[in-house]
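thought: user wants a sequence for this fold. calling inverse folding tool.
action: design(structure=
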């Protein structure tokens, strides 16, 4: 075994070697823990070091500190007010990380301790933009879960995979077709520590798959007080194919997916064993990690000499499962032959199960034609299962009721906990300050308390809230202009068109954001179903509208790419192009810019396919209004005075329903959203609109925060 494995990046030496001036020295320690990304003044400090470089490095402080010029560094080191900010941030970091008590009001089970934490497994983690190991909602949710667990001081470790190429980067060709580019993640440019064993050697775990031993080394990421461990098979001992087991997130064929999931589940348990961690609870966040239950059964059989059935009962006591997908086709499944190919004789050797008995664990009703599904496996092997909104709980009970043939649908044991977002991660710094003043310095700790918000926001003046929102909107307009300028330049568009980017969008015009994966059920094409009418609304002389879009289509989804192409083609039309923008390569940073600056966030999923959705929750904390189909979280959040609803409660899921929802979208937009936004008093203030903004903050922020979500997991599930 080679002891010190380096990646092929060239920057390694300078990364560790660089001296920082004493007043800035704490920045190194800060850059190693993602706490900076949600701490007040954290991101701002790194940005102010060198704002152009910050953007070039894609908000990666590790890179920033390597690449910043000596001149700039000495300049900032000599600036006393900057040095003081650094010192304050560092003091708060030390205080944060040394606090060991759980959040006072939290009813934490005594079984869960630092020695026996919750082990949280997920295939993707969206902790920060500079750690691109996520594709969308699931990953961002997992990242927010870790941050809230850290803030509430819940003992929790997380297990995931270190993808060498992450998820793809979106590039739009001149003919508007989406292309995928993969960039290599270099561990020495990221805030990841290699985990070593007691002898200082790289810690490795081994999993037998496809009849070969595959080894993975381990990286540790510090997310506040939570440790996230990532398995990485890109090591020289592995065959070329096996080095790519953790190559791409959601790339590759079903076989790659299966071995990836073996590494996550089985490798993850081996890792915890090597680290000496004995979790009290294993949380399977989505089915990808469900093989961990079988590895745990193997452990119990070995250690306690139990039969598989006895061991499975023990496993069930320790495992809990969250499902995120409301359609059967969205759940991972594998044909029996593939399971046999990848697992070989492990079921027999480890669990004393025949291949037939083994595959049955992943079948809904045991029919020998059925594939092996990770959701049925997880449902069978976990003591608790939940969906991610009330509606999704209901849909999941219906979807999986066959697994409990003697139980009526409403008694199927799948409950729900509605997803939330991490307030400090998503709130604009400007509004954070407003909340500190109106709700209180401790607004974060009290963010679950609805009465605190009701009272605090009531005392916030219309003028102050509107002014803050206008500033954020101006920032969004500048962001859109900047991005569009660069994108047009890169695509070699005409000089006039490139230049026009400098004047596109107007901060006074009603601005609607629509950003999410380009997937069929998200119905991107719904808005484009009547482009004549839409163009008219956009160009109304008294009450114009502008739209900002962003989102990626899955590489294999040709239909979604066509929808994207249609949208891009339309937005280039001279009649709308100054008021419509598509921002390429949607990621966490673009999401942050959009949710903090728009007036309205639109979402038109086909009911009931939006398990929860979280981006609208990010908008709510920033004072924006939701304009959405009543599905997922919005079905719970909407109260008729805190935003706008599209369509009704029907769930036909057919073309007719799409038509009706399209009609409703246009009608509500024209008759309610636009009307209300431009309804001004003699001072030019939209009083009714601002009242809605306030009501939105008051009613939605306390309910849809990840602090509330994690607290619920702790108290009801763990
Ligand atoms: C929040 C977020 C999502 C999830 O969006 P929904 O469509 O509302 O579920 C996806 N991608 C990014 C980058 C996000 O920040």
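)
observation: tool returned 718 residues.
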């Amino acid at each position: 075994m080679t002891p010190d494995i380096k990646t092929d990046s060239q920057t390694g030496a300078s990364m560790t070697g660089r001296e920082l001036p004493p007043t800035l020295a704490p920045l190194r320690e800060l850059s190693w823990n993602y706490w900076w990304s949600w701490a007040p003044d954290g991101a701002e400090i790194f940005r102010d070091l060198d704002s152009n470089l910050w953007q070039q490095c894609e908000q990666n402080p590790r890179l920033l500190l390597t690449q910043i010029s000596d001149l700039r560094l000495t300049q900032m080191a000599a600036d006393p007010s900057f040095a003081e900010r650094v010192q304050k941030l560092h003091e708060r970091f030390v205080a944060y990380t040394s606090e060991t008590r759980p959040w006072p009001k939290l009813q934490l089970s005594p079984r869960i301790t630092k020695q026996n934490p919750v082990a949280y497994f997920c295939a993707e983690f969206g902790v920060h933009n500079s750690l691109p190991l996520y594709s969308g909602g699931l990953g961002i949710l997992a990242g927010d879960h870790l941050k809230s667990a850290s803030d509430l001081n819940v003992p929790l470790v997380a297990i995931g995979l270190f993808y060498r190429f992450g998820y793809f980067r979106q590039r739009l060709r001149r003919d508007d077709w989406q292309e995928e580019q993969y960039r290599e993640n270099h561990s020495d440019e990221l805030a990841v520590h290699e985990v070593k064993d007691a002898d200082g050697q790289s810690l490795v775990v081994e999993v037998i798959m496809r009849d070969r031993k595959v080894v993975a080394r381990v990286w540790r990421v510090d997310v506040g007080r939570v440790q996230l461990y990532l398995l990485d098979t890109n090591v020289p001992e592995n065959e070329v194919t096996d080095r790519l087991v953790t190559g791409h997130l959601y790339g590759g064929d079903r076989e790659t997916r299966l071995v990836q999931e073996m590494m996550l589940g089985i490798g993850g348990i081996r890792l915890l064993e090597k680290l000496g961690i004995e979790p009290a609870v294993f949380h399977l966040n989505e089915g990808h990690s469900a093989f961990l239950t079988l590895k745990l059964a193997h452990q119990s059989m070995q250690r306690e000499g139990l039969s598989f059935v006895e061991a499975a009962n023990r496993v069930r006591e320790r495992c809990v499962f969250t499902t995120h997908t409301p359609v059967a086709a969205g759940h991972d499944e594998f044909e029996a032959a593939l399971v046999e190919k990848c697992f070989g004789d492990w079921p027999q050797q480890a669990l004393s199960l025949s291949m037939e008995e083994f595959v049955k664990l992943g079948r809904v009703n045991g029919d020998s034609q059925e594939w092996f599904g990770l959701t049925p496996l997880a449902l069978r092997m976990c003591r608790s299962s939940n969906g991610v909104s009330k509606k999704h709980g209901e849909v999941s009970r219906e979807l999986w009721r066959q697994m409990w043939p003697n139980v009526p649908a409403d008694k199927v044991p799948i409950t729900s906990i509605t997803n939330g977002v991490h307030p400090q991660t998503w709130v604009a710094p400007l509004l954070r300050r407003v909340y500190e003043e109106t709700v209180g310095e401790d607004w974060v700790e009290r963010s679950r308390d609805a009465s605190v918000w009701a009272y605090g926001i009531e005392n916030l003046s219309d003028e102050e809230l509107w002014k803050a929102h206008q500033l954020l909107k101006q920032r969004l307009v500048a962001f859109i202009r900047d991005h569009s300028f660069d994108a047009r330049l890169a695509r070699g568009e005409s000089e006039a068109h490139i230049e026009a980017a400098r004047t596109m969008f107007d901060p006074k015009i009603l601005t609607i954001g629509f950003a999410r994966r380009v997937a069929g059920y998200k119905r991107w094409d719904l808005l484009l179903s009547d482009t004549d009418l839409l163009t008219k609304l956009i160009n109304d002389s008294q009450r114009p509208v502008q739209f900002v879009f962003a989102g990626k289509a899955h590489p294999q989804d040709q239909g979604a790419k066509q929808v994207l192409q249609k949208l891009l083609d339309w937005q280039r039309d001279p009649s709308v192009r100054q008021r419509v923008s598509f921002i390429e390569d949607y990621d966490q940073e673009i999401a942050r810019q959009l949710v903090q600056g728009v007036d309205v966030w639109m979402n038109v999923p086909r009911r009931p396919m939006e398990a929860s959705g979280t981006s609208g929750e990010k908008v709510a904390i920033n004072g924006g209004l939701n304009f959405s189909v009543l599905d997922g979280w919005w079905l719970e959040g909407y109260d008729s005075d805190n935003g706008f609803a599209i369509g009704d409660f029907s769930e036909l899921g057919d073309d007719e329903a799409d038509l009706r929802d399209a009609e409703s979208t246009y009608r509500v937009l024209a008759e309610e959203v636009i009307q209300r936004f431009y309804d001004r008093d003699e001072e030019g203030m939209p009083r009714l609109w601002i009242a809605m903004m306030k009501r939105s903050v008051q009613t939605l922020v306390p309910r849809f925060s990840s602090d509330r979500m994690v607290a619920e997991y702790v108290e009801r599930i763990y």
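thought: summarizing for user.
answer: Here is the designed sequence. The chain is about 45% helix and 15% strand.
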